[in-house]
Amino acid sequence: MSNILENRCAIVTGASRGLGLEIAKFYLEAGASVTVCGRDAAALERAAAELAPHARAGQALLAVPADVSRPDDVTRLLEAALARFGRLDILVNNAGIAGPCGETETVAWEEWLRTLEINLLGAVLLSRAVLPHLKRAARGKIIQLSGGGATRPLPMRSAYAASKAAVVRFIETLAEETLPYRIDVNALAPGALNTRMLDELIAAGPERLGREQFERCLQQQRDGGVALRRGAELAVFLGSELSNGITGRLLSAVWDPWRDLPRHLERLQGSDIYTLRRIVPADRDIHFGDDT
Fold first, then answer.
1. Residue 175: CB partners within 8 Å, gap ≥ 6?
2. pTM of the shown model
3. Which helix H or strand E contains 217, and what residues bound it?
4. Are 35 and 116 in contact (CB under 8 A)?
């Protein structure tokens, strides 16, 4: 997928480390100019130094410390990107935190709220900010990082699970709103990654995380987890013209045949494939209340 993002300008949030840093690197290698942001200014500066060699002639890299949950920071981030590049084509909402571990009624309420502020409200806030620019251009891409909590319960991690399920439904809704403007809006599930978030979960211990999840995290740590490049490759695809018309979907970097989707675009559009939905008895060949 070399150069498929040439002449594109992107914002990647939460890019100081981990998957966000990997996505920014892949975007630069694909030819895009990139604005990266993160809350930790020192970590962001180190990330920018690591990314700089991947920018070729004609590309630019801009690093802006910002907290996506703060309206003033979001405004400053967008203004800096537009001032540097003059346009915006792609937003990658990657910023996210693990949130508190423990039973819902015992974790600190402030930490529960903070998880939603960053994982959900931060994504909504930045999407709201970029939409007028994408609508004026009548094209664009918004890519939202999802997580395991979007598709299954996560006991002892209720804030994270709720935020991830909510942000996917937001993305599905936003995709419907922006159809007339040719803006593609999708969620990306990168798989089980061995990042700082995993370290934080293991540090929480089995008492707060639950024995089953704790053991699963230890096993993931031993196995090495999913390679960061898997999610970064899907992020490049979703930011490129190859994915035009694919919108309102939650795609797994590991399990879904996303490279083949352009060939099946007509069947995909108008269907509920790769979306969140309610399971009813008939879906499992079970029938309640209609026995004869």
1. 184, 185, 186, 247, 248, 249
2. 0.93
3. helix 211-223
4. no
